[in-house]
Amino acid sequence: MISIKALHKSYGSTRVLEGIDLEVNSGEVVCLIGPSGSGKSTLLRCINGLETYEGGDILVSSERVDRHARSIHTIRTEVGMVFQRFNLFPHRTALQNVMEGPVYVKKESPTAARAHAVELMEKVGLGHRLDAYPDQLSGGQQQRVAIARALAMRPKAILFDEPTSALDPELVGEVLGVMRTLAKEGMTMVVVTHEMAFAREVSDKVCFLYGGKIVEAGVPQDVFGRPAHPRTQDFLRRLLNSSEPQA
Amino acid sequence: MFLQNALDFLPVLLEGAVVTVKVTALSFILSSVIGLVFALMMVSNSKLIARTGYTLVNIIRGLPIIVQLFYIYFVLPDFGIQLSAFQAGVIGLGIAYSAYQAENFRAGIQAVQQGQIEAAESIGMRGAMIMRRVVLPQAFKIALPPYGNTLVMMLKDSSLVSTITVAEMTRAGQLIASSTFENMTVYTLVALLYLALSLPLSYGLRRLEARLGTRNTA
Ligand SMILES: Nc1ncnc2c1ncn2[C@@H]1O[C@H](COP(=O)(O)OP(=O)(O)OP(=O)(O)O)[C@@H](O)[C@H]1O
Ligand SMILES: [Mg+2]
Asked: In the predicted model, what is the mean pLDDT of residues B100-104?
């Protein structure tokens, strides 16, 4: 579904991704973890062409991702994206946010798009807030609308960039709950997250990024249970120390 | 005495006020359209188009409005373009103010968060549609205060078209004053009439901002 080979990316002279190889099969959930600045966001942004890249290849359903190619718009309708800061359109209601892509990009009939959008709003638990504007919703609710907006395009995969890091702790659960459901339903997902319990529970594969490389990848039991690379061990130890209450 | 004179002068001044409102409204619309075009040029990805936009805006902004009005009314006929004083006034004021409108819109467009554009891109939208459905609606709300301010300034600066003989309110006042020598009465009336137009306008704009303002930001 998504196939990344020897991906290289720099910002000017700063090398951010230095040879990433990653296969994401249909129906798989892949979690990307790693310290700040390791290139997790950049990798995601390359996958749906929000960034250019200098070396290697990214293929989505065998189509090469190229920010400047005509095909990028089609690829983006197939690969949804959920942002850390939600990025809902503030001048449109929740329902309009969800309908925007289907109606204006895919030219679906408004009636059909509306019915589908209502269904998705119900799915994310917001069937009662269809006409709310984003600024009338909590962060967790906004993020769930953003997930519904991505789903409305009937994507083959969805990319999540730290979807819960901008949320108050008590709102994290409702968003992870929706994502858990999607994972169970077989949605292909690439998730950048610091929620290790979630990553451990839902992912088929966990990749640990460090300095623009995937230094360790594998099933969650291995990466979390017996990390092989010292960097991974170090990262997980720090994370445990900072999140575990002093006993 | 003042009241009697005032009642005599008022009908003529009110006719002038109608012209003032027409000149202001039409040149405001014209300046908005041209200004929007300039603003879209200035934020264009093409360096050439952007630079052309900035250059045009700087040239227009660098010329006194009166000089632009004189040029359009007195010089263009030499090139075979004959305009009525009213037409020349509207076009001149519209072009002169398009530079300020362009700046209002450009600032509004650039204040829209990058994340909004990325969200639009991520659902497959393309440039023109992103501009129309995502950026401009938000940019207009951001630009509303300076936009309203520009409208009030234009109402006042519409008096400049009196210099090319458009019979708007200031010119009507001048004509009455020069034939009756009742300067104080005439210009007090003119001033009051401008305030009668501009104060409700400012108030209405404030209300509009307050109503739209709540959904300004992402
Ligand atoms: N637009 C940019 N211009 C220049 N450098 C950038 C830009 N965006 C990111 N970088 C740099 O690229 C590197 C990787 O950034 P990236 O945002 O991908 O990291 P990340 O793993 O997502 O980190 P975080 O956990 O903090 O979100 C960082 O060193 C960052 O400073
Ligand atoms: Mg990041």
From this structure: 95
Tokens 């309203």 identify what position?
Answer: B148
pLDDT digits (tens, 9 = 90+) for A190-205: 999 999 999 999 999 9
User: What is the arithmetic mean of pLDDT over B124-136?
Assistant: 94
pLDDT in tens, B52-83: 999 999 999 999 999 999 999 999 999 999 99
Handedness of CA A69, A48, A37, A90 (dihedral sign): positive
Give the gap in angstroms from C-alpha A173 to the nearest C-alpha of chain B.
Answer: 23
Q: DSSP letter for A85, please.
A: T
In degrees to the nearest 10, what's the CA dihedral of B43, B44, B47, B48? -110
Contact of A73 with chain B, judged by CB distance below 8 Å, is answered with: yes
Q: What is the ipTM of this complex?
A: 0.91
Q: Does B207 touch chain A (CB under 8 A)?
A: no
What is the chain A residue with the closest CA to B218? A90
**pLDDT at residue B216 in the model:** 46
Tell me, what DSSP letter sits at residue A239?
H
Helices (H) and strands (E) in chain B, counts: 9, 0
Looking at the CA of residue A14, tell me the nearest atom of ligand 1: 5
User: Which residues are bridge partners to A189 per DSSP?
Assistant: A29, A158
pLDDT at A246 over 90: no
Residues whose beta carbon lies within 6 Å of some atom of ligand 1: A 11, 14, 16, 34, 36-42
| Optimal mutation site among A89, A106, A154, interface B, most CBs of chain B within 10 A | A89
Which of chain B's residues have a Cβ under 8 Å away from the Cβ of A88?
A: 119, 218
Structure tokens at B34: 């041209």
Q: Taking the mean position of all CA atoms in its chain, how far away is CA A102?
A: 20
User: Would you say B54 and B42 are in contact if contact means Cβ atoms under 8 Å apart?
Assistant: yes
CA distance, residue B102 to nearest chain A CA (Å): 22
Question: Ligand 2: distance of its center to the CA of B52 in Å?
Answer: 37
Reduced to 3 states (helix: H, G, I; strand: E, B; else coil), residue B64 is coil
* B7: exposed, middle or buried (Cβ count in 10 Å: 0-12, 13-18, 19+): exposed
Nearest to A90 among B123, B126, B218 (CB): B218
**H or E segment to which residue A190 belongs:** strand A188-192
| Pick from A74, A81, A134: CB nearest B122 | A81
Name the pLDDT band for B8 (thresholds 50, 70, 90): confident
Mean pLDDT of B125-153: 93
**B15 burial via Cβ count (<10 Å: 0-12, 13-18, 19+):** middle
Is the pLDDT score of A245 beyond 90? Answer: no
